[in-house]
């Protein structure tokens, strides 16, 4: 090969390397990652000192304490009898307070159509089983949770995407909720410790917290009604990188202890059977969805 040919070949190789380096750094088209984020940026943990000087497109800030919340409605029973149901995913501030309804222009209403356009009808079917509401429609609850909490997530702002497409951030919000909820099977955690729904006996707060600490490594917030019925759980996380990064899945979520004291009494906590659960078998339903590809 001539000198000119070698030089041309080296130049072409350098251009190819540079191109792939840029695609990897920006996250590429399929991921929609921010073109503003370097590898170091995406390694920053929310609520850390570094997050204060990192672009909020690359790390959740200032709402860097993410809370995956679940409910146990027993009268009337909602969802499968052997499962808790989804409440939402909230971006609390690092001190435990929280923002609310941050972008009215993105309060999307026609969710079934948006799910269909994004080929995520299966996810909507899943949510109709596991994301239930007592009053109103389930879809209205999903839209409310997005409008109140999802619009406050800094890394999901449209200007934080290199290749933004309509509703991309909404679908990433919902698929992240799905992934986290599947990672946190509260009913299974408690059952493994012998903590099962019963109308006969009660449980202590220490017993429940010890069980959940063993399962997750951290103590979540446990919520009880005024008459000490267990009905809510909040799992707390910090997040490394962007929400909805499909390369990372939920691996960027790092658990942490609750910032709020439990509203349950220390003893006499009631955890009853669901009076009229919508669906009988949680495990059979899970089997239908375990092969779905995000």
TrEMBL record:
> What is the source species?
Tothia fuscella
Q: Which domain of life is it from?
A: Eukaryota
CDD domains tied to this protein: RNase_T2_euk (cd01061)
Question: Which named protein is this?
Answer: ribonuclease T2
Protein's UniProt keywords contain Signal: yes
Give one GO term, molecular function aspect. Answer: RNA binding
- PANTHER family listed in its UniProt record: RIBONUCLEASE T2
Extract the signal peptide range: 1-28
As recorded in UniProt, its EC number(s) are 4.6.1.19
Which top class of enzyme applies to this chain? lyase
**GO BP annotation list:** RNA catabolic process
What are the record keywords, sorted? Disulfide bond, Endonuclease, Hydrolase, Nuclease, Signal
Return the Pfam families for the record: Ribonuclease_T2 (PF00445)
Catalytic residues in the record: 87, 145, 149
**Similarity annotation:** Belongs to the RNase T2 family.
InterPro entries attached here? Answer: Ribonuclease_T2_eukaryotic, RNase_T2-like, RNase_T2-like_sf, RNase_T2_His_AS_1, RNase_T2_His_AS_2
């Amino acid at each position: 090969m001539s000198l000119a040919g070698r030089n041309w070949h080296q130049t072409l190789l350098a251009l190819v390397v540079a191109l792939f380096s840029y695609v990897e750094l920006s996250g590429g088209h399929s991921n929609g990652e921010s073109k503003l984020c370097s590898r170091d940026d995406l390694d920053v943990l929310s609520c850390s000192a570094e997050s204060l000087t990192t672009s909020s497109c690359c790390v959740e800030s200032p709402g860097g304490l993410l809370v995956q919340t679940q409910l146990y409605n027993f009268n009337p029973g909602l969802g499968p009898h052997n499962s808790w149901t989804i409440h939402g995913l909230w971006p609390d501030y690092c001190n435990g307070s929280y923002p609310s309804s941050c972008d009215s222009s993105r309060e999307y209403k026609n969710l079934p159509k948006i799910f269909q356009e994004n080929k995520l009808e299966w996810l909507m079917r899943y949510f109709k089983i596991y994301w239930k509401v007592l009053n109103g429609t389930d879809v209205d609850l999903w839209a409310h949770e997005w409008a109140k909490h999802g619009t406050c997530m800094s890394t999901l702002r449209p200007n934080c995407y290199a290749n933004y497409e309509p509703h991309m951030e909404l679908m990433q919000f919902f698929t992240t909720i799905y992934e986290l909820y599947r990672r946190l099977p509260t009913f299974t955690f408690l059952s493994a410790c012998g903590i099962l729904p019963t109308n006969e006996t009660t449980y202590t707060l220490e017993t429940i917290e010890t069980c959940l600490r063993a399962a997750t490594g951290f103590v979540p917030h446990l919520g009880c009604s005024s008459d000490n019925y267990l009905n809510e759980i909040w799992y707390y996380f910090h997040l490394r990188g962007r929400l909805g990064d499909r390369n990372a899945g939920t691996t960027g979520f790092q658990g942490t202890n609750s910032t709020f004291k439990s509203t349950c009494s220390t003893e006499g906590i009631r955890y009853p059977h669901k009076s009229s659960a919508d669906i009988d078998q949680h495990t059979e339903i899970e089997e239908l969805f375990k092969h779905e590809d995000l």
